[in-house]
Amino acid sequence: MAAYDVVVIGGGPAGYAAALAARQRGASVAVVERERAGGACVNFACIPTNILMESASTFLDARELDVMGVFSAGEQFSLGRATARAATLVEQVARGVEMMLRRQGIESVLGRAAFRGPNSIDVALREGGTEVVEAGAFVIATGSRWEMEPIPGFPDDRVVTPDVVQHMIEAPSTVLVLADTDGHVPFGAEYAALLATSGSEVTLATSRESLLPALDADLRPAALDGLAAFGVRVLQGARAVRGNDRAISLGTADGDVEVQADLVVVADPRRPSLEGLEVERAGVTASPYLSVDQTCRTNVPHIFAAGDATGGALLTNAASHMGEVAGTNAAGGEAYARLGSIPKFLHLTPECGWVGIDEASARQLGYDVMTGTADLAFNARAMALGARTGVVKVVAERELGQVLGVHVVGPAVDGILALAAFAMQAEIPVAELAGMVQWHPTIGESLAEAARRAQ
Amino acid sequence: MATEIVIPKLGMTMEKGTLTEWLVPDGQEVAVGDLVFHMETEKIEMEVEAEAAGIVRQAVPNGTTLPPGGIVGYILAAGEPMPALSPAATAGAAASVAPVANSVPVSAGTASMLEGGRIAASPIARRLAREAGLVLAGVAGTGPGGRIVEADVTAAIAAPPAAAPSPATAPRTPVSPPREVLASPLARRLAERFKVDLATVPGTGPNGRITLADVEGAAGHPVDQPGGAPAEQHRPGDIIPVRGMRRVIAQRMHGSLQEMAQLTMGIDVGMGAAVDLRGRLVEQWAGQGLRPTYTDLIVKALALALCDHPLLNAEFSEEGIRLLEHRHIGVAVAVEGGLLVPVVRDADVLTLREIAAETNRLAGLARAGLVLPDDMAGQTFSVTTLGASGVDFFTPIINPPNVGILGVGGVRDGVAWEGDRPVRTSVMTLSLTIDHRAVDGAPAAAFLGTVRDLLESPYRLMS
User: What is the ipTM of this complex?
Assistant: First the structure.
């Protein structure tokens, strides 16, 4: 039997952040992981997606290299090469996580955990046998798993999740991507763009009113134009109702639409992954998510939870933040989770992202709203990058000058989003954002410009 | 010669002081050391005494707020005229009156004050002074233009307060230096507005930094941070500040009733089939940890009924009645100190199972204070439930800019007649409030009838 101050169940972003935070406070820490360190983020989601999207957007850029004075490059795209590269890099990142934990003196236990009682778990070890592990505090960070509902009439084996696409060698000729995402970030858009780049005829459908409901309405057309440039057909307000061997019927307000599909990619249907954990034996209630308070405590004071298992924002950055809070508190510290100003980002061309709320939401919530926009078409760096469109929009309230949201579409706008997220998390007033001095020419300058125009 | 009476600078973070009350009438004679006025800053209250003897001439009324160094009046010799008020004249004036009480050791000197009341000092001098709790306004500057340099602060720290050149400048009751408070800029702004002393606010940000939400909490509203400091116990006689969530609720509800012509109607719904269906779903979904509620059935019924009655899914505005394309149902969730209304988007196209998962997720996050702002905006219609509290009928208030809201009562036993025989039934009352500017009674009643029919034949909710 082994005993630790803190045992973290799950080695994804929430889990390793929790383990590192607890270890940093001097606690003895073990992480129980049933598959491979890194969780969904490293193995099936953020990391492989980002690597593959870099291949896709490089290909798109390469088509216009002659404008830059570069010739004879980028005529073909090989999905097989791109996925092979992604697999290699994912392996490196996962090993990096394992090594980082080991260097910090955090024990890794490979196996499946099940609670015995409030202070102990059984771990069915991957190498065989069972080990009892005791702890003064637990952090449950088991994440979420994809769970697909079948489409009546369409073969189940041709409805797949993104992890299957990540290992494809050749793209199917017709694909329907369904992007109904709980967490407002439609990762399906990235897979639609990737497959379209690879030569598939792609339809991207969402049953929601808008593919990007949380992005400010002023910026949505630019983001959708970007998808059209990849060759993706977008259907909003369309829900898959039934299928036959080769096609899917989508119900829309204007009647049914039939879409050819050799394959259906369901982007992000997630449910908390708690099966077999027997949390109720520790007195923890799950319904189906684990409810936590701002300190990431469950209803049992020494048992914490973080990341997707809590419903949270179903995003890696939220999971890491909650993990750090949970780990700190599990080791006797004091920290509080704040998810209101975490950035959201899609690695498309143009890139698109936001942090906070849009103008319409701010007005509906009763704020005295002021907005400012800057057109990236006049940003010298954006011009050098060859971009034709791009917008930065700042949403703020008048009373205190609080920045409520920043929305961006354009080239290299992750820099703007990083600045905006920092300013909002640090609660810097919009006037100070407006006075910020940047290097020239950079994309970041446009954030200050939009802030200056906010009135 | 006229001696200026100014707002003294007390600490690095002081941005302004308010002359709350003159303690000497205009024109009265004072001696050195007499108390001249009472003032307050964000952090402290204090009395300021005269350093010169003469006749006090007030230049500003009670309640005037000025930056440190701002002139509030003069001490004049008999018969001397009052000088013209000039901000430039503040230079060198800081030592003409001395703060009493509170604060920190002050040694006399002539600090050089820049425009806006900022004292000229080197960064190292500032840091040293801050660490020693020394007020720079009292330190004599020997650098260029009277700028305070490191050596001046070192000397001032070395000189004990008792050895200060003038007894009037020595504090009567020395207390600990003002605490350096870690707080976000917006938290400071709000604290100033709410008159909250930041030194008393527990910070929940990184390294205990005080955030906007912390100040809202300290101002009587712990609702934004249920995991943070425990709610205060209110006692009779207390005045609970109307801020944060409370203020939003107050403004929106009052605004709603002022602006709209609200009409409420009720209808009884036979819930027998819905009770059976929910019971079956509870069993069927138990393995997935998913427990559907009556609210989930009602959200779905409401969304489907809105498809048939588009006039109820609308916004009333100056231009006209705008029919909305999508059916986003706001579900009121009671939280500590108020309520939040997270939104189930496109509830008409979500399956009942998806609705159950989504309402559960949103309600949990709302109660934990973790709900994302994007999840709380955009509802086209709302539902609010008081059934669990034993209420059957009530008059819900519409969430602007919607034109309707549905109130849900508890499921109770009722009686129906089968021939002459009474049989037990399950009944629930729905209370619908509409904006009569947009919708009339008859179409509203028809809509309510559709909701009832869907709940009485709930298999239609399973499509």
Answer: 0.82
